Amino acid sequence: MNPKDSIDWRSIFDPTSLVYIVVGVAFAAVALEAFMLPNKFLDGGVTGIAILVNLGYGVDLNLLLVLLNIPFLALGWKKVGKTFAIQSAFSVFLLTLILHFVEFPTVTQDKVLIAVFGGFLMGTGIGLIIRGGGLIDGFEVITEYFQKNSALSASEITVFLNSLIMLSAAFVFGIEPAMYSILTYFTAIKTTDYVVEGFEEYTALTIISKEDDKVKELIVKEFGKAISVYKGERGYLPETFHIHHPCDIIMTVVTRLEVHRIKLAIQAIDPKAFFYVQTIKEVKGGVIKKVGKKHD
């Protein structure tokens, strides 16, 4: 049976997931009531639309958050998974409860501080909720759906839809609140990325060297890193295309703080070693964070 057709009750009632969601919703509620709403600042997505309609036409924000998210949650139920839809519905419901029953005082009137810290709190909240398995904004679902059915990428679709929201904000509230809303949204999405993916970026380092045995020993024994080895060939240079040799292609995952030191150590073994680096978003398992003794 397809996992998205079943409900994983263990995930739904997992204490860690629930803590992530509850804390994340609390952060989002503080961002809305203590920073964004009193100053007519918008976020992106469904939350942004709800704020726009609430401030512009006086419709109850909690009602809007529920009604506007229903079609996206239904789409998530069908296209993403039932467990995800239940956790997202719980997140939205909890947010409306907190907004209805808890009042947060306005923290500051400074517009830059509101945009930066409001976006930071909102992004932190959204990121924690995502780590808990849910969402409070259905735009993520529709973005994924449209991406599979159009030539546009997910980021292009997100930018287009949120641009429409910000243009609407400029029309209803004026240019300045719309510009601050863009700053709020940008802060929120960058913070969300950090919370979901982690602050520490990892790098995949791939090395091709005639001294492959020495390079493998250096990385594993001196730096304490795990490696993966692919069988390949080196050579095929423009001047000597007919000359090539079998070799081991070595790949390891390191932190960005270790890249330069490892590259220097490899060049000391083989000055003509070829390597390239790739930034990767997430790694799990294996030997990643263990740092071996310093190689001089």
Automatic annotation (TrEMBL):
Residues 229-285 form the DUF2179 domain. It is a multi-pass membrane protein. Keywords: Cell membrane, Membrane, Transmembrane, Transmembrane helix. The keyword Transcription does not apply. It is found in: Cell membrane. The chain crosses the membrane at residues 12-37, 49-72, 84-102, 114-136, 157-175. InterPro entries: DUF2179, N-reg_PII/ATP_PRibTrfase_C, UPF0750_membrane, YitT. Gene3D superfamilies: 3.30.70.120. The keyword Transmembrane helix applies. This is YitT family protein. It comes from Algoriphagus confluentis. The lineage of its organism: Bacteria, Pseudomonadati, Bacteroidota, Cytophagia, Cytophagales.
